Amino acid sequence: MRTRRPLIAGNWKMFKTCAEAVEAASRLVDLSSDANHTDIMIAPTFTSLALVSEKIAGSNVGLGAQNLFWESQGAFTGEISAQMLVSAGCRYVIIGHSERRQLFGETDESVNKKINAAIQSELIPVMCIGETESQRDADKTFSVLDKQVQMGLEGFSSGDLGSLVIAYEPVWAIGTGKTATSNQAQEVHRFLRSLIEKKFDKNLAESIRILYGGSVKPGNVAELMSMPDIDGALVGGASLDPEVFSKIIHF
Ligand code: PEP
Fold first, then answer.
1. Would you list the domain boundaries of the chain?
2. Ligand 1 atom having least distance to the Cα of 217
3. Which terminus in the chain has less CB density within 10 A, N or C?
4. How many CA atoms, within 13 angstroms, populate the side-chain half-sphere of residue 71?
């Protein structure tokens, strides 16, 4: 029996105008109204957040952002704070996505500060971690993940991290159509849970939700979700079409 409530999260990346985002969100609300078995999150672009928030109000779809900056306000052109996300209706924020790490220079130190800012504003942080293909080939998967977890969560107590969600997203599986096998993913999720137990405590290790991300689709979600340590999915491409995403939600 599942002890942790699943979370199926959609990362819309840099797709959809305001009108397209509102239309997709509205359709998703209809399609997921019977999905009481899981939490649901969508993360549109910043420009659509407030509009989508109005559309999904009162539904079982929660709103997330794709990033934030750790300062609360100030001369930081182009950045958005945690409080601003809350004021736009967000409950969740994705932090340290591999595209941000690879394309925008995000580091484990910045991830750490962003998680802190999210927690201070009572946003649920979805911390993304994952190894590249060459790191996996060089047998460094566990050491890479260990470092990302140690540094990303440095300085927190287990009490701080009650809402934290971890998304394990092997970089080689994002947007590539390659998915980790359910056994590969389970092995890593088990490792992450034991890492959390060592760094914090058993309670947090048992309650923390660990999502899998990387080419999740309607055809592979059920098998991934049958694994004991996989508590949900972070979905990119397949979250853009509400009909397809709804099939994933109804795993
Ligand atoms: C993602 O962007 O987090 C992701 C997992 O993308 P995709 O599902 O397209 O591989």
1. 7-249
2. 8
3. N
4. 7
